[in-house]
C-alpha cells in the first residue's frame, strides 16, 4: 500500500453576528481547521486534521512533506516525525510544520488501521479501555447576555458530571464563575478551569488560591504557554494541579514541561502536537515521569476521533485499581457543525461517557459531501 496523493481541505464555520464565544483573551465567531485526505494506490483513504488554517497548511505540506509522503508506505509513518525536525532544519519544531505533520501522521495511522483491520488504539499499544469519560468544555464568555449557569446546566442535562469552564478575567469574576459552576454541577462532579494563559504568575496564584474551596481538578494554562518560568512559579506556590499542552508542539516542548515538573497534566492536541506518533512518545515520557495525560480537543470531528483513539491507548501507570481517576476526553459544547456534521455517525458523549470506536483506523467514516459544504477554499 503506497500513498499516491495528499490533499489539504480547509473547512470553516462562522457563528451569527453577536453570538461569538470567547475565553479570557477575546471573542471569536469563526471556527476553522484543515483536514488532510491521504489516498493510496488501491483507493483507500486516510483522514487527519491539522489544526491550523488551510492557507498556511497547504504550502507547508507542499514545501516540506508532499515529496516524502507520496510513495510512502503508511507503515513508515513514525519516521516522518523524526525527519521533520531535521529536514526542514531550523523549522521542524514550528507550530505550522508540527500542525501539518499532525494531519498527515493521523491520516497515515488511519490507513495503517484500515489495512490491518484494527482500530488505531490497538496499533498504538492500547486495548484495555472500551469507554472513556467525557467532560464538557463550556461556560464560555459570550458577546450577549451572561448565560454562565445555563451553559453548565445544559451540560449537566446531557449527562456530563465533569465540566471545564473559562475564567481569567480577574479573581473576583473567576470566583463568581467557579461558584456558579460548582453549585450547578454539584459537590460530586469534576470541575476544571481554563485561564487560557491570560495571567502573570502572581495573578494566577491569587486566583488559584481563591478557587481552592471549589475543589478544582486542574487549572489549565494559568500563564502563557511560552512562560516556562511562570509555570514553575505557579506550580511551586499552589496546591491545585496544573495542566497545559494545547499550545505546545512536538515532543521536545512537552519534554520540557515534563522534565521541569511544571505541570501535573499534559494535554497534547492531536491536530498540533505532531499526530499520533508524537502523542505516543509524549505519553511515554509523561507516564514514565508519573505525569497524567489528557488530550486537549478543540477540533473538528476528525481531530476528536484521533484524540479518542489516543486516549484509549494511554497507559494507566501507576494506577492499577481503587484510584477513581478515569481517562478524560474533552468535548466542546459550543455550536460547531465541523464536529457534528462531517461524520456519517458522530461520536456521542451524551451521558458523560464515550464508547471507543473499534472500526479500523481512527474508527470513523468521514462524510465527504458534508466536508464539501464547509470547504473554505472555494
UniProtKB/TrEMBL annotation:
One GO molecular-function entry: hydro-lyase activity
UniProt keyword Magnesium, yes or no: yes
InterPro entries the UniProt entry points to: Enolase-like_C_sf, Enolase-like_N, Enolase_C-like, Mandel_Rmase/mucon_lact_enz_CS, Mandelate_racemase_C, Mandelate_racemase_N_dom, RHMD-like
Name listed for the protein in its UniProt record: Mandelate racemase
CDD domains: MR_like
One Pfam family from the record: MR_MLE_C
Record's keyword terms, sorted: Magnesium, Metal-binding
Annotated region described as Disordered, given as residue ranges: 343-365
Ranges of residues in domain Mandelate racemase/muconate lactonizing enzyme C-terminal: 145-241
Source species of the chain: Candidatus Halobonum tyrrellensis G22
Keyword Magnesium: yes
One annotated GO biological process: amino acid catabolic process
Cofactors demanded by this protein: Mg(2+)
Highest taxon listed in the record's lineage: Archaea
Amino acid at each position: 500500500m503506497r500513498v499516491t496523493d495528499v490533499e489539504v481541505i480547509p473547512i470553516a464555520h462562522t457563528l451569527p453576528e453577536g453570538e461569538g464565544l470567547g475565553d479570557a483573551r477575546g471573542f471569536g465567531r469563526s471556527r476553522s481547521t484543515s483536514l488532510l485526505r491521504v489516498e493510496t494506490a488501491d483507493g483507500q483513504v486516510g483522514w487527519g486534521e491539522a489544526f491550523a488554517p488551510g492557507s498556511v497548511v497547504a504550502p507547508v505540506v507542499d514545501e516540506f512533506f508532499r515529496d516524502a509522503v507520496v510513495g510512502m508506505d503508511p507503515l513508515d509513518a513514525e519516521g516522518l516525525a523524526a525527519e521533520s525536525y531535521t529536514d526542514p532544519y531550523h523549522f521542524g519544531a514550528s507550530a505550522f510544520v508540527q500542525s501539518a505533520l499532525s494531519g498527515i501522521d493521523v491520516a497515515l495511522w488511519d490507513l495503517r488501521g484500515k489495512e490491518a483491520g484494527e482500530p488505531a488504539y490497538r496499533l498504538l499499544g492500547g486495548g484495555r479501555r472500551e469507554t472513556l469519560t467525557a467532560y464538557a468544555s463550556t461556560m464560555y464568555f459570550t458577546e450577549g447576555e451572561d448565560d454562565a449557569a445555563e451553559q453548565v446546566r445544559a451540560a449537566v442535562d446531557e449527562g456530563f458530571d465533569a465540566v471545564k469552564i473559562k475564567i481569567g478575567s480577574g479573581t473576583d469574576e473567576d470566583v463568581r464563575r467557579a461558584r456558579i459552576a460548582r453549585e450547578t454541577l454539584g459537590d460530586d462532579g469534576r470541575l476544571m478551569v481554563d485561564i487560557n494563559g491570560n495571567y502573570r504568575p502572581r495573578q494566577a496564584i491569587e486566583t488559584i488560591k481563591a478557587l481552592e474551596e471549589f475543589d478544582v481538578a486542574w487549572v489549565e494554562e494559568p500563564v502563557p504557554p511560552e512562560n516556562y518560568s511562570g509555570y514553575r512559579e505557579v506550580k511551586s506556590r499552589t496546591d491545585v494541579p496544573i495542566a497545559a499542552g494545547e499550545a505546545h508542539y512536538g515532543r521536545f516542548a512537552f519534554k520540557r514541561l515534563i522534565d521541569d515538573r511544571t505541570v501535573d497534566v499534559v494535554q497534547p492536541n492531536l491536530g498540533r502536537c505532531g499526530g499520533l506518533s508524537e502523542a505516543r512518545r509524549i505519553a511515554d515520557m509523561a507516564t514514565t515521569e508519573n505525569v497524567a495525560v489528557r488530550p486537549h480537543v478543540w477540533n473538528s470531528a476528525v481531530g476528536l476521533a484521533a484524540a479518542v483513539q489516543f486516549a484509549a491507548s494511554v497507559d494507566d501507570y501507576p494506577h492499577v485499581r481503587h484510584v477513581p481517576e478515569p481517562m478524560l476526553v474533552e468535548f466542546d459544547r459550543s455550536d460547531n457543525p465541523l464536529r457534528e456534521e462531517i461524520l456519517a455517525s458522530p461520536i456521542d458523549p451524551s451521558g458523560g461517557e464515550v464508547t471507543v470506536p473499534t472500526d479500523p483506523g481512527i474508527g470513523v467514516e468521514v462524510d465527504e459531501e458534508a466536508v464539501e459544504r464547509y470547504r473554505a477554499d472555494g
